[in-house]
Description:
Layout: E1 10-14, E2 18-23, E3 31-34, E4 37-40, H1 41-49, H2 56-68, E5 70-72, H3 73-82, E6 86-89, E7 92-93, E8 96-97, H4 100-114, E9 123-128, H5 134-147, E10 152-157, H6 158-164, E11 176-181, E12 186-192, E13 195-196, E14 202-204, H7 208-222, H8 231-242, H9 249-258, H10 260-263, E15 265-270, E16 277-282, H11 285-291, H12 307-316, H13 323-328, E17 330-333, H14 342-365, E18 378-379, H15 387-396, H16 399-404, E19 406-407, H17 408-414
Parallel strand pairs: 1-9, 9-10, 11-17, 17-18
Antiparallel strand pairs: 1-2, 2-3, 4-5, 4-6, 7-8, 10-19, 11-12, 12-13, 12-14, 15-16
Amino acid sequence: MDPAASRPAVVIDNGTGYTKMGFAGNVEPCFIVPTVVAVNESFQNQARGSSKSSNWLAQHSAGVMADLDFYIGEEAHARSRSSSVYNLTYPIKHGQVENWDAMERFWQHCIFNYLRCDPEDHYFLLTESPLTAPESREYTGEIMFETFNIPGLYIAVQPVLALAAGYTTSKCEMTGVVVDVGDGATHVVPVADGYVIGSSIKSIPISGKDVTLFIQQLMRERGEHVPPEDSFEVARKVKETYCYTCSDIVKEYNKHDKEPAKYIKQWKGVKPKTGAPYTCDIGYERFLGPEVFFSPEIYSSDFSSPLPVVIDKCIQSAPIDTRRALYKNIVLSGGSTMFKDFHRRLQRDLKKIVDARVLASDARLGGEVKAQPVEVNVVSHPIQKFAVWFGGSVLGSTPEFFEACHTKAEYEEYGASICRTNPVFKGMY
């Protein structure tokens, strides 16, 4: 028996906006930190500048120092604000890792400074976005086995984990559509019996970050006095604190205009440079922010299909014998589905589309054959925010998980290509 298999696996869910990390078997992640790395630029310039004249040792030690001098998460934000030598990099864009050096540093801090564990003693479960290239899994495997020397690795697809998060019931339903709205990417992924139906995956260029940018734009156009260097952060906090989904925009405007005192919120902040306090109003953006998912034309002219339509198209392109089951289990995942009443609005709009189709087919058949009504059900649960992580935690604590992992021995024998496939294992259904 592998001694590492008796210890809990480490589950790290790397997202564009936030990374959730912790140990399998826990109910929630130990840490949720923004996926950002602050690297000290002055060291690198020093190492470059000293190459001509000065000695090898100085250069070498500058290189070593540069490797150690970086921060991640909130600390990175704080450092880059307070001093000008740290540059922020966001290693993941639109759900894909773009900067592998930064990603390696990020993982280093995750493991040693946050989780404080010895990577050689734990199996690891990492997650990836549904449309990731196989090469990216190889890079991940290489970093994990070479740099951190881990005993075993499993790379799971995020939507499958989000479905597995519904495990709290005795019978797990591994067929469903996962609507994953993260910070950098929105995917609608149909899963049948734990297998992703790859040809029917739909992705939308509107995600949590766009909601933030839209709120920022609305506040700027209205002339709220938010210091420009802080405006994105303020918009993000406003989104996370005050936004909700409304059932009808016009009614909502009227409500706000009728009783501004009830609906308009005050934002209090401090200017980062001078420390002077400032306040600004938060009005219509409270419901206009999340509205970009349901009427995207208010935000961008490039993309105009509302989320419910995309979900419907996705299910209609899936194999016909899975469709009813898919409509019945639409699971939300990702922080940007946390808006109040988001699931109600989604279910209502989808039901409209489906009912209209059933009516049309009845009319076409002239009432000879009655279609069975289609049940549409959008599942919402309190852990949506880290459903992917929680699913990983559940699966990582099953005994089958350790058998499904790629081990260090396999990696040494066959190389990084073993990481390309990660079999669906018994624990999943």
